[in-house]
């Protein structure tokens, strides 16, 4: 694995500038530096030859009519006009549709089958004053008191509510498609228009509003939208499996394994509706996850999000408050946790994912997370554009630019981040003057990007100007001065100028001891940084002395199970590895791994870093089977979390292949 394999211990932790703009502290490099083999990353994401392996075989060669014919009992690949979809929304909200329906929401658990939050259709009253009603997919009447429920406003009706209360009553008797019940002028041609993936528990009105916004400026009578609630046979799909005929089951299975993905690719456009930017419901529903894969793994590989009203403002609020929360929202997504109402459907989708994709859910998560990162970057750009138009060249807009730059730096979009940082710097100079501490923060951020790009001369120029301003405005002994000294030291260290690096690190450490005290976590970070230089110089005794003091401070101030303590354990293991003391290295790595799994979870990149390091110990001992097991687990995590193109993922794949050559 390439240099930095674990989350950095920043020199100032979560220190913020006076405008609540995060100071982009530079990453530390903690993992095993290994020689790069001259071999290209060869793992394919989608079956053999890089193509998605379909369970159905040759659907790509079928005509539109043939593909439709094979699924005609289950689904029609025709959409409805957006203007009609808007009318359905308006009719539902006004009460013209499903006029005799009253929905309520359970405020508490009413039974084992009816939990708090369940939607109930009120049917009538009992002689004792209680009420009874129906809940979708629950057998028998549900009894409740008026105090146990609250009314469900029609504006809050979900797509599932529309299906249950509007679509099914119109289609159940004839087991028909809703497409047959609407004027055919509003039904689109085969595969014409946009395929929309959405989770039915989201508000129907929000879905329609998002589509109206996306297609603004276009004639809504000529925009055709495919939604399963209208274009799939709802009466058949709501039947229990045992009531379905063999031919219907066969069509459904064929649709799942190959036909649906091929159909998705044939539409003009593919959209996904997100009710929330940070916890989108479709990523928690197995059928939506399968649709997403179909959009991302075919010829077009495009799937654009449309968001519920207000979500762009909600995203911007979080971006301004703490960009790390945006990154964390991505990291928390795991499609293994997606659910289906029917256990059988979940099992079928799981089998299909494992059969279709190399490494199954690992690959699926990797594809979705990579796309989600791209989507969030797009939203970030849109937020900056909106701020620029609204705020002009103000300090508020500079803050938006700086936070966007921080987030994009974290995502590896360095050139884009640099542009936003430079815009924030220009505004800062104009509004605050050249010598303001916030200008120093902007200079620090720009320097951080240059350092990440390996442009060390430029990085030093910006860091040194930031240092000069901070000394002048904050004093020589201020913690922000120590931060900049630390960052300058990082550049010299990256250049191999270890004496210069040590000089700056030691001054930063001295300020830290003076201003924060000898037992502060940031002092432990500075000790770690100095130890890294000594290790790079091969001065292992000095390195261990600084690491052990850092470990003692970390255990004392943060506790034995803190991730920063795990980092120091990892670093000590690195020294012992470099000395060839493999038993000692393993002892520290294994404690590091235990803490990482406990505090970060089994799928975190830092856990992969430690697994990689353990693999290198076994590789050094020529214990190829053991090394392979650790490298493969690390590879699976990084493929899923960082994607196939990330350098760390590629490096571990090289290690995997090297071990396989020896077995």
TrEMBL record:
<feature type="compositionally biased region" description="Gly residues">
    <location>
        <begin position="47"/>
        <end position="58"/>
    </location>
</feature>
<keyword id="KW-0677">Repeat</keyword>
<keyword id="KW-0802">TPR repeat</keyword>
<feature type="repeat" description="TPR">
    <location>
        <begin position="398"/>
        <end position="431"/>
    </location>
</feature>
<feature type="region of interest" description="Disordered">
    <location>
        <begin position="1"/>
        <end position="67"/>
    </location>
</feature>
<dbReference type="InterPro" id="IPR019734">
    <property type="entry name" value="TPR_rpt"/>
</dbReference>
<feature type="repeat" description="TPR">
    <location>
        <begin position="440"/>
        <end position="473"/>
    </location>
</feature>
<feature type="repeat" description="TPR">
    <location>
        <begin position="482"/>
        <end position="515"/>
    </location>
</feature>
<feature type="repeat" description="TPR">
    <location>
        <begin position="566"/>
        <end position="599"/>
    </location>
</feature>
<dbReference type="InterPro" id="IPR011990">
    <property type="entry name" value="TPR-like_helical_dom_sf"/>
</dbReference>
<feature type="repeat" description="TPR">
    <location>
        <begin position="524"/>
        <end position="557"/>
    </location>
</feature>
<protein>
    <submittedName>
        <fullName>Kinesin light chain (KLC)</fullName>
    </submittedName>
</protein>
<dbReference type="Pfam" id="PF13424">
    <property type="entry name" value="TPR_12"/>
</dbReference>
């Amino acid at each position: 694995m390439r240099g930095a394999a674990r989350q950095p211990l920043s020199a100032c932790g979560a220190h913020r500038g006076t405008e609540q703009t995060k100071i982009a502290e530079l990453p530390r490099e903690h993992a095993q530096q290994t020689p790069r083999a001259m071999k290209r990353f060869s793992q394919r994401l989608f079956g053999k030859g890089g193509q998605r392996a379909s369970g159905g075989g040759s659907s790509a060669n079928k005509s539109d009519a043939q593909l439709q014919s094979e699924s005609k009992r289950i689904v029609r690949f025709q959409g409805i006009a957006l203007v009609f979809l808007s009318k359905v929304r308006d009719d539902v909200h006004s009460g013209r549709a499903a006029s005799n329906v009253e929905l309520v929401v359970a405020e508490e658990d009413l039974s084992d089958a009816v939990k708090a939050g369940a939607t109930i259709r009120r049917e009538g009253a009992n002689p004792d004053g209680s009420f009874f009603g129906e809940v979708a997919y629950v057998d028998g009447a549900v009894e409740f008191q008026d105090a146990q429920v609250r009314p469900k406003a029609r504006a809050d009706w979900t797509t599932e509510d529309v299906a249950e209360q509007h679509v099914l009553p119109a289609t159940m008797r004839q087991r028909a498609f809703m497409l047959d019940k609407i004027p055919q002028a509003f039904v689109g041609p085969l595969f014409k228009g946009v395929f929309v993936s959405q989770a039915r528990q989201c508000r129907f009105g929000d879905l329609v509003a998002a589509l109206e916004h996306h297609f603004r400026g276009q004639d809504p009578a000529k925009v055709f939208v495919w939604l399963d609630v209208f274009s799939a046979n709802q009466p058949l799909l709501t039947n229990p499996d045992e009531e379905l005929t063999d031919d219907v089951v066969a069509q459904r299975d064929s649709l799942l394994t190959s036909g649906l993905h091929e159909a998705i690719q044939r539409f003009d456009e593919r959209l996904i509706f997100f009710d929330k930017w940070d916890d989108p419901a479709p990523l928690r529903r197995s059928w939506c996850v399968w649709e997403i894969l179909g959009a991302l793994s075919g010829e077009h590989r495009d799937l654009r999000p449309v968001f519920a009203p207000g979500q762009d403002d909600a995203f911007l609020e979080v971006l301004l408050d703490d960009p790390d929360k945006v990154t964390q929202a991505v990291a928390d997504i795991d499609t293994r946790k997606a659910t289906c109402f029917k256990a059988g459907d979940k099992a079928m989708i799981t089998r299909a994912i494992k059969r279709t994709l190399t490494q199954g859910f690992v690959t699926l998560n990797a594809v979705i997370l990579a796309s989600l990162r791209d989507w969030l970057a797009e939203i970030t750009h849109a937020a900056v554009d909106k701020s620029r138009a609204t705020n002009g060249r103000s300090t508020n807009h500079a803050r938006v630019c700086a936070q966007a730059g921080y987030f994009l730096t974290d995502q590896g979009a360095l050139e884009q981040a640099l542009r936003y940082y430079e815009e924030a710097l220009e505004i800062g100079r104009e509004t605050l003057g050249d010598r303001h501490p916030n200008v120093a923060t902007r200079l620090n951020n720009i320097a951080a990007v240059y350092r990440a790009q390996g442009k060390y001369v430029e990085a030093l120029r910006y860091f040194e100007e930031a240092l000069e301003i901070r000394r002048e405005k904050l004093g020589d002994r201020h913690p922000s001065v120590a931060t900049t000294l630390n960052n300058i030291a990082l550049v010299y260290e990256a250049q191999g100028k270890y004496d210069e690096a040590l000089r700056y690190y030691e001054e930063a450490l001295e300020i830290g001891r003076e201003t924060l005290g000898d037992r502060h976590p940031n002092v432990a970070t500075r000790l770690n940084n100095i130890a890294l230089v000594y290790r790079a110089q091969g001065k292992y005794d000095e390195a261990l002395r600084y690491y052990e003091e850092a470990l003692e401070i970390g255990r004392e101030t943060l506790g034995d199970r803190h991730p920063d303590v795990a980092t120091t354990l990892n670093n000590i293991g690195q020294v012992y590895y470099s000395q060839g003391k493999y038993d000692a290295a393993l002892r520290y790595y294994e404690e590091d791994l235990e803490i990482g799994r406990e505090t970060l979870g089994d799928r975190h990149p830092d856990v992969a870093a430690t697994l990689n390091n353990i693999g290198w110990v076994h590789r050094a001992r020529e214990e190829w089977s053991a090394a392979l097991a650790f490298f493969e687990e690390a590879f699976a995590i990084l493929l899923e979390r960082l994607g196939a193109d990330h350098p760390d993922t590629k490096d571990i794949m090289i290690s995997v292949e090297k071990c396989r050559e020896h077995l």
